[in-house]
Amino acid sequence: MMDGGHAEAGELDGVALPGRRARLLSRRSFLAGSAVGLGALGLGGCATSDGLLLAEAAKLYGPLPDEKFPIPAVDVSKVDPKYYRRTVRYASKEAPGTIIVDPGQYYVYRIEGDGTATRYGANVGRQGFLWSGDAYVGRKSEWATWTPPKEMIRRQPETAKYARGMPGGLDNPLGARTLHLYQNGAYTLYTIYASSDAESIGSGITSGCVGLLSQDMIHLYARTPVKTKVVVLPA
């Protein structure tokens, strides 16, 4: 996923750390909750006031105090409203449950059938680190340990303190949930992971991996079994 780097349970090598967007960890500078409220707006195309939209988003992206590491609310004012989770019309021949990543538009879709999909805003790979093709979810991780690859430690000696692994937690680059993508039985090193950096949504900052807001990632993760097909579109 990231330029050939390896990290345990997620191989993250540069995902934006929570609250530290200006200090990305190198190459991968890497809910339960219902979409009904925003979904209705998305499907109906209804015009609504910014205040109402923010109020709905605040509910959708509120705190998750019952997580192993309680997750704070997202500052939704830092996210472009077009990236809020919602149900949208989306024509696709893919089976319900399939995940489609559209890096060019900074969206991840979960096909729901009947011409609709759940759409999530995302951060994606920066220029030179984009990839496309079919894959599948080979494994799933909750609050995974992150281990920087040797190449990263050589470039950034300060990461050596995590050579034996950085335990899961709010500051862990992999976040609360991770979907690990495989092709033909082999791990691609690419993931869809949870990000706490609201300002990263709608931008290209990683070395190929795809990040969703933690609340969105938990929502997608709970509905995605191992072996789920993932289609990554060309940027």
UniProtKB/TrEMBL annotation:
<dbReference type="InterPro" id="IPR050979">
    <property type="entry name" value="LD-transpeptidase"/>
</dbReference>
<dbReference type="Pfam" id="PF03734">
    <property type="entry name" value="YkuD"/>
</dbReference>
<protein>
    <recommendedName>
        <fullName>L,D-TPase catalytic domain-containing protein</fullName>
    </recommendedName>
</protein>
<dbReference type="InterPro" id="IPR038063">
    <property type="entry name" value="Transpep_catalytic_dom"/>
</dbReference>
<keyword id="KW-0133">Cell shape</keyword>
<comment type="similarity">
    <text>Belongs to the YkuD family.</text>
</comment>
<keyword id="KW-0573">Peptidoglycan synthesis</keyword>
<comment type="pathway">
    <text>Cell wall biogenesis; peptidoglycan biosynthesis.</text>
</comment>
<dbReference type="InterPro" id="IPR006311">
    <property type="entry name" value="TAT_signal"/>
</dbReference>
<keyword id="KW-0808">Transferase</keyword>
<keyword id="KW-0328">Glycosyltransferase</keyword>
<dbReference type="InterPro" id="IPR005490">
    <property type="entry name" value="LD_TPept_cat_dom"/>
</dbReference>
<keyword id="KW-0961">Cell wall biogenesis/degradation</keyword>
<keyword id="KW-0378">Hydrolase</keyword>
<feature type="domain" description="L,D-TPase catalytic">
    <location>
        <begin position="97"/>
        <end position="233"/>
    </location>
</feature>
<dbReference type="InterPro" id="IPR019546">
    <property type="entry name" value="TAT_signal_bac_arc"/>
</dbReference>
